[in-house]
Design a protein that fits this description.
This protein is mostly beta strands and 115 residues long. The chain is 0% helix and 54% strand. Strands 2, 4, 5, 6, 9, 10 and 11 form a seven-stranded mixed β-sheet that branches. Strand 4 and strand 5 (46-51) form a beta hairpin. The model has no long low-confidence stretch (mean pLDDT 94).
């Protein structure tokens, strides 16, 4: 069992930056795919970015070039750096670990971008 705790959300003006962090209570394994998802009011949860143990990354088209995901297996953390934020990035952001098909989720952290 893994518990995830996100931090770093908040209110920022458009064009600003935020850094989200996710700490895992248990160990992060090399087989784990780590990711960040987001859910805006009235919308489905969507993948923002993911990273494998080989540091292969995948980004939603809407955040490419602005967001960067990274992982530190030794510290059991995954980080999402968000630059050039837009009002449409406003959502609750969730940390995720996919371990051989089993998903673990954090409680979410609110990101609000004002125009």
């Amino acid at each position: 069992q893994v518990q995830l705790v996100e931090s770093g959300g908040g209110l920022v003006q458009a064009g600003g930056s935020l850094r989200l962090s996710c700490a895992a209570s248990g160990s992060i394994f090399e087989i784990d795919v780590l990711g960040w998802y987001r859910q805006a009011p009235g919308k489905r949860r969507e993948l923002v970015a993911s990273i494998t143990s080989a540091d292969s990354t995948n980004y939603a088209h809407s955040v490419k070039g602005r967001f960067t995901i990274s992982r530190d297996n030794a510290r059991n953390t995954v980080t999402l750096r968000m630059n050039s934020l837009k009002p449409e990035d406003t959502a609750v952001y969730y940390c995720n670990i996919n371990r051989v098909g089993t998903n673990y989720w954090g409680q979410g952290t609110q990101v609000t971008v004002s125009s």
